[in-house]
Design brief:
With about 375 residues, the chain is an alpha+beta fold. It folds into three domains: about 90 residues, Immunoglobulin-like (Sandwich); about 110 residues, no CATH class; about 130 residues, Glutaredoxin (3-Layer(aba) Sandwich), CATH 3.40.30. Helix content is about 35%, strand content about 25%. Strands 15-14-13-16-17 form a five-stranded mixed beta sheet. It has a four-stranded mixed beta sheet with strand order 4-1-7-8. The termini are far apart. The N terminus is likely disordered.
């Protein structure tokens, strides 16, 4: 009996200790949402995690509690159906949100910390920009080139505002992190507004926030993420330089390949070093070229014939019209990426299109199209 009481007492002590963990609270009302499920979500680096939920009553009131972030801001959201309100939490504060369906994400009030208010500002501007892009894309009276120019102008103005008002103004804030890491969605899909892996100007934005977070939250996983992205972006977008290197004689034959990382139509990044173990064609092209349609047909024949034996194509588009590129390569079976800043063409010294390189299974460039002897198929067969 005495032993049992001791175990119960120990359990109560553990429960008491758990209850003493620092908590934050998010509360408020969602009007016009009777019988709807309200989900309380954490947007972590590991993905979206549902923390709690409640079925709303007629008055729409709700209250959630969760363990407070440890040492750095974290990001959360309230969701009803497709409606979402994003906010940040720094410590043990109480966040108060009042909204009404069906305009929950557009006409809500939020109080509790300054970053959440700024995130609201960013979210509303983001929704406006996305709506403008979709309207332009659906405008059949506009030429494709004019559509692209209009969208570029809107995005450039939006990015500049993000830089000046949120990123450079207070880079250590949760709002700065939210601004630099945000994604937008148009009719073509989702893409990163700031992409440090392909744009050197975007690297500066990531580096600014990374430096501020490293000074204020050095042990936070998000700080490590920002720093890694900034460092990799600096490497990817650095202008090519001639370097004299001392190497062991045994390694002279291991020429390797200069790595480049570029996004596909879904903003997923692909690297040429991922091709190691395969015979690969690194192909610089433009789908808008007159001969492109016939050339794609020929490449598809080669791909279907030799892919099962380890042949892969890494195709890099230099089309200025990014929407035309997405449409052109949507149904191609190989890796299709897009270059926007000219860094890859400089690294590989590409001056005319199409230009391609054949790579062996050791990830070494074997031949450039300008100097290739025999047909492309013959050279692929030799490497397989």
């Amino acid at each position: 009996m005495k032993k049992t009481l001791t175990m119960i007492a120990a359990g109560l002590m553990m429960l008491t200790a758990c209850d003493k963990e620092p908590k934050f609270c998010v509360e408020g009302t969602i009007e016009g949402a009777k019988d709807s499920m309200l989900y309380f979500i954490q947007s972590s680096l590991d993905g979206v995690q549902k923390l709690d939920s409640v079925k709303l009553k007629e008055d729409g009131t709700f209250s959630f509690k969760a363990t407070a972030p440890n040492g750095a801001p974290e990001f959360y959201a309230l969701q009803v159906g497709e409606h979402l309100v994003n906010f940040a939490v720094d410590s043990t504060e109480t966040i108060t949100i009042k909204a009404k369906l069906p305009t929950m994400e557009k006409a809500y009030t939020i109080a509790g910390n300054e970053s959440s208010q700024k995130i609201k500002e960013i979210s509303l501007m983001q929704q406006q920009v996305q709506a403008q892009m979709v309207e332009i894309e659906r405008n059949e009276d506009m030429y494709p080139g004019d559509q692209v120019d209009s969208i570029k102008s809107i995005l450039n103005a939006y990015k500049e505002r993000m830089k000046q008002e949120y990123i450079y103004a207070e880079p250590k804030s949760a709002a700065a992190y939210y601004a630099v890491c945000q994604s937008l969605t148009d009719l073509q899909g989702t893409f990163q507004l700031f992409n440090p892996l392909t744009d050197r100007n975007d690297v500066k934005c990531y580096a600014t926030v990374a430096t501020a977070w490293d000074g204020n939250y050095p042990d936070a996983p998000r700080t490590k993420q920002l720093c890694n992205m900034a460092i990799k972006g600096m490497d990817n977008t650095a202008p090519p330089q001639q370097r004299v290197m001392e190497v062991d004689e045994e390694k002279v034959s291991e020429t390797g390949i200069i790595d480049i990382t570029l996004p596909d139509i879904n903003s997923q990044l692909h690297s040429v070093t991922e091709l190691k173990g395969k015979v690969a064609l690194i192909d610089f092209t433009a789908y808008s070229a007159e001969e492109s349609k016939e050339r794609m047909r020929q490449l598809r024949t080669l791909y279907e014939k030799y892919h099962a034996q380890g042949f892969e194509i890494f195709q890099i588009s230099l089309d200025e019209d990014i929407h035309f590129w997405k449409f052109s390569c949507e149904n191609l079976p190989w890796v299709c990426v897009h270059e926007t800043d000219g860094s890859a063409t400089k690294i590989y010294n590409v001056t005319n299109l199409p230009t391609f390189f054949l790579v062996n299974r050791a990830n070494e460039i074997v031949v450039r199209s300008d100097f290739m002897e025999g047909t492309l198929e013959e050279n692929i067969q030799k490497l397989l």
